[in-house]
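Cross-check.
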Amino acid sequence: DAAVRAYAAFVSNQVAACCLLTLAADAVARIIEFGVRLADDQGRLSTQFELVADLVRESDYQARADGAAQVSARHVEVAVAAQQRRVNLPEEELGRLIDDGTIEIDTQSRVVGQVNGLAVMDLGDYRFARPTRISARVGVGGEGLVDIEREVALSGPSHSKGVLTLIGYLIGQYADRRPISMSARLMFEQVHSPIDGDSASCAELCALLSALAQLPINQGIAMTGAINQNGRVQAVGGVTEKIEGHFAVCRAAGLTGNQGVIIPRSNVRHLMLKPDVVDAVKSGQFNVWSVSHVDDAIQILTGVPAGERQRNGSFSSQTVHGRVARRLSVFARAVEKRTSVPSLLRRQAASPPVATNPVGARTRMQVPRPGAESIPSEPPTAAARSFIAARPK
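Predicted model, tokenized:
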């Protein structure tokens, strides 16, 4: 490839111009990988040549400190780690807060209505990511979906757009026969600064579906991806850093083999993972799943099939969509009858008779006791009061 040869020529020129040690072939290959990672695309190379030149010089320093006559791939990796260590203090501090439980991130259990999203922090000359807990709560009502971040003015326009797109998916998927009647809340937990971007919209949707279906989500799996109104998962930025960030948290808590990250399928070409992450995936200790639709994601998270719409328009009761549709139907009947959900789920044979007064208000019928006068449901007219007063006692 011409671009790769040009990169190798640039490295050679730097060696000659600065009187550096020669580089072995594996060292040149490692520097080219560094350029690909800077570009965030397996098919491209970064033109930030000042950063590449810095790495060549620091690799030479590491080789001389090691007493080597030639720069190897190991010296390049040591140089890359040293560069990161000089600027990653915020990353280390955030990792410490997660490890000691100050910031609550669960990677071991299964929880209903809760999923780990992934957020990228950009420090200018360094980017890193860590998981962020997203929770959803649902109940009977007519408020619809409320994004707590938006309500308190912490949501940027792109994030608000993602939540509104999520609502469009719900309408298209479940409101074909009756309106959706529910009150739901979405929240980024322990986040107190403004957030933006729609890369968490798929994770938010999965948390909401879990809460509606009452199916627990594997907390060892984090996810990223934007969603459209048809449920397609779209590409986002920073997928490499997001996978490495969640891997670091899972490794600190203990790798189980059931942990991993869900990413959009269209982001696979953007991955340039560190060797330790690649080794963990190869050995089965960690997983990376690529999906193109939210149905694939929710099945990985819950272990339950998402379900397909049948000819009559319904879903199988043993699927995620079937459970969600059934719960929304219960909510809708509760709103229509102005009663509680539990009363709809039990028989009402013992309920006292109900009468409707002339203005349509529902009132309980008064059953007179023996020897007692019945009480009319409406105030008596003047003629009726005269008649009652004139009756013998």
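Confidence is low (pLDDT under 50) at residues 347-351, 353-377. The first strand starts at residue 110 and ends at 112. Passed to J.P. for a second look.
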